[in-house]
Design brief:
- This protein starts with a helix and ends in a 20-residue tail after the last helix.
- Strands 3, 4, 5, 6, 7 and 8 form a 6-stranded antiparallel beta sheet that branches. The chain has a 5-stranded antiparallel beta sheet with strand order 16-17-18-19-20. A 3-stranded antiparallel beta sheet has the order 9-11-12.
- β17 and β18 (about 640-650) form a beta hairpin.
- With about 700 residues, it is of the alpha+beta class.
- It folds into 5 domains: about 5-210, no CATH class; about 230-315, 2-Layer Sandwich (Phosphorylase Kinase, domain 1); about 320-500, Transferase(Phosphotransferase) domain 1 (Transferase(Phosphotransferase), domain 1), CATH 1.10.510; about 500-590, Recoverin, domain 1; about 595-690, SH2 domain (SHC Adaptor Protein), CATH 3.30.505.10.
- It is built from 23 helices and 20 strands.
- α4 (about 100-115) crosses α6, α10 (about 330-350) packs antiparallel against α15 and α14 runs antiparallel to α15 (about 485-500).
Length: about 700
């Protein structure tokens, strides 16, 4: 298990709804059990003798275990408080949430008061610790509810408690809560201010999550995982609601309890014992996963003839998006962001859940309405212990085009089989071409992949980081393929190289800002780095936020600079981050911002609307998106009562021309059959205004003028 990934999960903010918080708690419990088993096994394997490096690893793991336990107990404690309050208000006669932490509190008090019985009490503590709270779900009254409960300490079968015993238990429960509330006050006397502040922040975040849950009816049913959904509650039309299908069955758009969902209906509805086991295995795997890049399982129906899996509804999948004959695929950068989404989801499956997907392909990478990519279809997925391998005795499972050679050859395999599939996905997403179109038969394809080690040709135009990652992922030797943790890190470099076209600009960004999820950087951090490179004060550069800060981030404090915006700025203005030419370019940019005639990067259509009805030669200057490197600026003006547009070209200058053109560029504009050359944009506009070619700067407002064609 990836300890760094686990730490990120523990430190992540809590979900805002009750169902997600319950799943989060269950995931913490699974991680805790896995880490504990790992440490015990390591000690057994070494007969209690461990190296210094192993000792450090174990100590690190124990710290993580402690963090998990602390977070779980905080959640249990707050659930307990919530339900004691509910029971007081509703005269409830059965406690719903029983915190394990409460039981430990009582035992610890007994230990302090009865020194002669230390051994017995310690044994009781150990027994209590082994009985972790259980997550249960229920569907009574058409409402899905969730609870955290403790296993019965005395009986193996549930039974009704006498009313007197229930009341006594409620009194004990309230006393335990009071003891818990008093304990932190005593403990805080021994904590530093920083520790107290962190504790208060943690409690506040959990309280906020609890507050967002709303009031839901609770039940004492003992079901686990996604709820069993009655088939009559899943409503869809087999003729009009079909989303897709394959050998396994079909997927429909449906409605369940008022929510739009996707429902997977296996082709075979009368399942044998082994088939039912396989179906339940898929549901069991899906219910363990809670991650923004994995499709969420909402429930299942296992009634014979009505077998279905219900999950969140997605908009489309990558196969339809990339290979559609009707719509152009998104830009390369957007496609690589989608690949990063997929990598993050698979990294979670491998690192936290120990799940191998086994059928990664574009059709199984779903896209939500907000363009987030999520992993779907766990029909062939398997849980695998860290460091072990699997093999297909009855033949390989998955899709042949994406299948790793070791799987195809029925050799032992592990999670690196998914890495191979991702390499082909990455290639397909980058080229938008179908894989291996020259093969239609399995035998020649098998020979090409397994024996000849054939892979698709990678275009020379690909960034080096992308080429290297693809080649590493589809390496014939599984041991040479990277882990998905490494894949996600390398994808950040790929994103930089695909978002920023200029080599110097990409190097500047990588050196100063590249880090996990570094698609943007706060403006304050960006301007500080830029200031140190060009040796200009940040106060001088601060007006440039109007150009650099992305429009969609205006509400954030200070704003952010995205890689895409940084790339555009580099194309429009050149290497403004260069220590030699940068200061001159940046001063020119600051001067432009002072001019009334500079209208930023508005479109041609908007510029014409602003010029309509204006006097002759009213003008504006705008940044051009058509060819921002060769013709970065456009002069739009009125001529004969109609808008006209004239592009301004830019080209590099020779070394002996630097004194005349200090920005390292010269700008050319056509006029009356001639080409006028200038050292800056402001100089060009001033000269054109002097000779009468341009007159009044255009305001940013529009005049509503009716046209005959309107």
């Amino acid at each position: 298990m990836d300890i760094n990934l686990i730490k990120q999960y523990i430190n992540s903010s809590l979900p805002n709804d009750k169902e997600s918080l319950i799943q989060y708690y269950g995931q913490l419990k699974q991680i805790l059990n896995a880490l504990s088993d790992k440490e015990q096994q390591q000690l057994l394997n070494n007969n209690g003798k461990i190296s210094e490096q192993q000792q450090l690893s174990i100590e690190n793991n124990y710290k993580v275990i402690g963090s998990i336990e602390e977070k779980m107990k905080s959640i249990e404690h707050l659930f307990n408080n919530l339900d004691v309050s509910d029971s007081n208000n509703n005269n409830s006669t059965s406690p719903v949430f029983i915190s394990l932490d409460n039981q430990n509190t009582v035992n610890n008090n007994n230990n302090n008061n009865n020194n002669n019985n230390n051994n017995n009490n310690n044994n009781n503590n150990n027994n209590n610790n082994s009985l972790a709270p259980t997550v249960i779900l229920d569907n009574n009254d058409n409402k899905k509810t969730a609870e955290i409960i403790l296993p019965d300490h005395h009986n193996n079968t549930p039974q009704q408690q006498p009313e007197q015993q229930v009341q006594q238990q409620q009194v004990q429960q309230q006393q335990q809560v009071q003891q818990q509330q008093q304990q932190p006050e005593q403990q805080q006397q021994h904590l530093t201010e920083e520790q107290i502040q962190k504790q208060q922040q943690s409690q506040a975040s959990i309280q906020q999550a609890i507050a967002n849950m709303g009031e839901k009816k609770r039940s004492s049913s003992r079901h686990s995982g996604p709820p069993e959904i009655p088939p009559e509650e899943i409503k869809f039309d087999v003729k009009t609601d079909l989303l897709g299908g394959g050998a396994y069955g079909k997927v429909y758009k449906a409605t369940c309890r008022g929510k739009k969902v996707a429902v997977k209906v296996p082709k075979k509805q009368t399942l044998s014992e082994s088939e039912l086991k396989s179906f339940k295995n898929e549901v069991e795997i899906m219910k363990q996963i809670f991650h923004p890049n994995v499709v969420l399982c909402l429930g299942a129906c296992t009634k014979p003839g009505k077998v279905m899996i219900v999950s969140e509804l997605m908009q489309t999948d990558l196969e339809k998006l990339i290979h559609s004959s009707e719509v152009e695929p998104p830009p390369l950068y957007e496609r690589m962001k989608m690949c990063l989404d997929a990598a993050l989801g698979i990294n979670w499956l491998h690192g936290i859940c120990n799940i191998i997907h086994r059928d990664l392909k574009l059709a199984n990478l779903m896209i939500s309405k907000d363009k987030t990519v999520k992993i779907g279809d766990f029909g062939f997925s398997q849980v695998i212990k860290t460091g072990t391998t699997l093999s297909d005795q009855k033949g390989p499972k998955g899709t042949a085009l994406y299948m790793a050679p070791e799987v195809m050859m029925k050799h032992e395999f592990n999670e690196k089989a998914d890495v191979y599939s991702f390499g082909l996905i990455l290639y397909e997403m980058a080229t938008c071409e179908e894989l291996f179109p020259e093969y239609s038969e399995i035998d020649p394809f098998y020979d090409a992949i397994c024996n000849k080690k054939l892979r698709p040709p990678i275009p020379d135009s690909f960034p080096k980081s992308l080429k290297t990652l693809i080649q590493k992922c589809w390496d014939h030797d599984p041991n040479k393929r990277p882990s998905f943790n490494e894949v996600t890190q390398r994808m950040n470099e790929v994103l930089t190289d695909t978002a920023i076209s200029g080599l110097d600009a990409a190097m500047f960004w990588k050196y100063n800002f590249i880090k996990p999820e570094s698609e943007s950087v706060p403006w304050n951090e960006f301007v500080y780095k830029l200031s140190s490179v060009v040796n200009l004060p940040t106060q001088v550069l601060s007006p440039l936020a109007q150009l650099f800060v992305s429009q969609s981030y205006e509400e954030e404090i200070g704003g952010v600079v995205t890689m895409e915006r940084f790339d555009l700025m580099n194309k429009w203005f050149g290497n403004f981050f260069n220590s030699k030419y940068g200061p001159a370019i940046l001063y020119e940019m600051i001067e432009l911002l002072k001019k009334r005639w500079f209208h930023f990067d508005i479109s041609r259509d908007i510029s014409e609307k602003r010029l309509r009805g204006r006097p002759e030669n009213t003008f504006l200057l705008r940044l051009s998106a058509n060819d921002p490197i060769k013709t970065p600026f456009t002069i739009s003006k009125t001529k004969g009562s109609k808008p006209t547009h004239k592009r301004v070209s830019r080209e590099d200058v020779q070394i002996n021309e630097i004194k005349q053109f200090p920005m390292g560029y010269k700008f050319t504009v056509p006029l009356d059959g001639n080409e006028l050359v200038f050292g800056s944009i402001t100089q060009m506009v001033e000269e054109l205004h002097r000779i009468g070619n341009l007159s009044i700067p255009c305001p940013i407002t529009e005049i509503k003028v009716p046209y005959l064609t309107d």
